[in-house]
Amino acid sequence: MYLLELGGEDDAFAAREARSAATGVDRIAPGLAVARGIDPERVRGLAYTHRASELLGRGDADLASARAVLEAAAIDRTGSVAVRATDVHGSSDVRTERAERELGQLLVDRGFAVDLEEPDHLLRVVFSEGTVGDEERSTGSDALERVENETAAGEHASVCALGWLAAESVRDFGTRAPTDKPFFQPGSMDPLLARAVANVAGARPGATILDPMCGTGGVLVEAGLVGADVIGTDAQAKMAAGARENLAHFLGTDDPSPTGVSRGSWHVGRGDATRLALVDDAVDGVVFDAPYGRQSKIDTHRLEDLVAGALAEAHRIAPRAVVIADRSWREEARAAGWQLESAFERRVHRSLTRYVMVLERRAGGSDRLGPDRRDALTSGSE
Ligand SMILES: C[S@@+](CC[C@H](N)C(=O)[O-])C[C@H]1O[C@@H](n2cnc3c(N)ncnc32)[C@H](O)[C@@H]1O
Fold first, then answer.
1. Which of 111, 270, 289, 377 has CA 20 to 30 A from 209's CA?
2. Does the CB atom of residue 246 touch ligand 1 within 6 A?
3. Which of 6, 27, 19 has its CA nearest to residue 342?
4. Boundaries of domain holding 223
5. What's the CA-to-centroid distance between 378 and ligand 1, angstroms?
């Protein structure tokens, strides 16, 4: 079992992204989830999970409880150790420095040497107290793989969890701020959200991800850095040229990416998202960030027709899509044959909320299953 330390302001969305790198993910307290298994290489590429640790045990969010967990734990490790404690959102009132000192002393008493600079093993101790939002309850495809210990939605949680650090995500997103890229346009997606939606769409080595309205190529850059081969199209020649510039800059080298994988291949062309020059089932996942009514110039389509057409094309060429927009296009998605797997609302600023829809092809490809099973489980305040 693993402990996941989530980042960002939306635990439900973070947990959904974590499911691209872990199985049996369940939120147990604000900022915390447990997972049955992890793929360490994929954890390195997550945007909204900071760390995964091999769970040693868990208790209540106080120091006495953390001590009891550590005292009772079997430790089959040798070498030097260090303890790092975190109080998620300052929610538990535990003094983390004192926790590090006392828990470190317990390890010394058990024969371990402490090395704060380069320990062989790092013990993460995380305290968190608060309500686990009832907006989500695992809408992901792992929903049926729940672990026994989950915290019920809306329940107050008081948790300390201890675990040996197993994998950390690479926090280099600041080096790819949209304004610092070779080609920048207003409306470019922030690299954290771009990485997360790429991961949710299935970006990984061996997978092919398409963004049919790629703009500056923000999603494609992030998908390529976790090893996916990427394809982009945009209706505007200027955008297609700019995306090429950005992709050449970030993916056009044989060096492994910061997450340790080979960068994916890339291809960008000018094209209409409603009429793609790709055969059926050509890619593993589609991501697009639909133009916002007031923002992008759309020459040939009404926005409704553009999104409906792009959804239908995506459905023809991929089993999964992630759509980001300034409104929920769920009815259009259903009409195009998609099943809504999960949905999230992310407030960007006061007047802009971004909707993220995760879509899967309906089993059987028809309306046979009737209304979406998971509608009742969608997140956010829809
Ligand atoms: C919101 S922007 C995408 C931003 C992008 N995610 C980024 O990070 O730069 C939407 C893009 O859709 C493109 N677009 C509009 N109509 C299109 C169409 N029919 N086919 C393909 N792209 C289209 C616009 O040129 C614009 O670049």
1. 377
2. no
3. 19
4. 173-377
5. 26
